[in-house]
Amino acid sequence: MPRSVLVTGGNRGIGLSIARELAAAGDAVAVTYRSGEPPEGLFGVKCDVTSAEDVDLAFAKAEAEHGPVEVVIANAGVTRDTLLPLMKEEAFTDVIDTNLTGAYRVAKRACRGMLRMRRGRIVFISSVVALSGQAGQSNYAASKAGMIGFARSLARELGSRGITVNVVTPGFVETDMTAALEPEQQQAILKNVPLGRAATAAEVARVVKFLASDDAAYVTGAVVPVDGGLGMGH
């Protein structure tokens, strides 16, 4: 029987790849998107994760379409990169509100059904910079590092109910966002990647699929890097 899955920020990049990977494995997948159009072949729900009301409505629509949500992938995120002396306070608080507090809103709403079912999978999409840091991304790195502490606390809270909570930390991934970087910027990053190349979104998605599967039933509180070795030592 297909599981009901919700992927936030699932209309492009890593989120879309995760949604397609889980759908191909037989799950009934709903994706949230903030702007644009829903991806073809997937049940799309317009949702801004900075709004608790939007998040609640997105879950309600996914539940009405596919049943109680059993797997949640908290992927929605934004960047507003700038060096700290130039960073306006709203650039910091907006990134925290979307990436970290948004993950809190999603996980809190997900718990409601999962606790009743006494099972569930929550996977947070963080980043290699959560642990290594990155100049110009203090807001983003703080939001993604906070996600790890949040997830590990939840893993301890929810484990007795059969709910696992894990984190994936992608490194440099081929997406529209990274394609916008200048070639010399890309090369500067790749020279620090032992595997010498960017990841595909599908490579991240397959790790998420494992963590959401029965094969990972005894994995919780884990931080799994998919970064080609970029974050080693952190």
Which ranges are low-confidence, i.e. pLDDT below 50, for 5 or more consecutive residues?
Answer: none
In percent, how much strand structure appears in the residues? Answer: 15-25%
The major sheet is characterized as: 7 strands, parallel
CATH class value? Alpha Beta
Mean of all residue-level pLDDT scores: 95
Which class do the helix and strand fractions yield?
alpha/beta
Give helix % range.
40-55%
CATH fold naming: Rossmann fold
The oligomeric state of the chains shown is single chain
- Report the CATH architecture: 3-Layer(aba) Sandwich
Count of separate structural domains: 1
Distance, first to last CA: 40 Å
How would you describe this protein?
The protein has 234 residues and is of the alpha/beta class. The chain has one domain (4-225): Rossmann fold. Helices cover 44% and strands 18% of the residues. It is built from eight helices and nine strands. The strands form two sheets. Strands 3-2-1-4-5-6-9 form a seven-stranded parallel β-sheet, with helices on both faces. It has a two-stranded parallel ribbon with strand order 7-8. Strand 4 (69-74), helix 3 (89-117) and strand 5 form a beta-alpha-beta unit. Helix 1 (13-24) packs across helix 8, helix 2 (52-66) runs parallel beside helix 3 (89-117) and helix 3 (89-117) runs parallel beside helix 5. The protein is globular. The model has no long low-confidence stretch (mean pLDDT 95).
Features:
seven-stranded parallel sheet, 234 residues, two-stranded parallel sheet
Quick gist of this model?
By secondary structure, the protein is an alpha/beta fold.
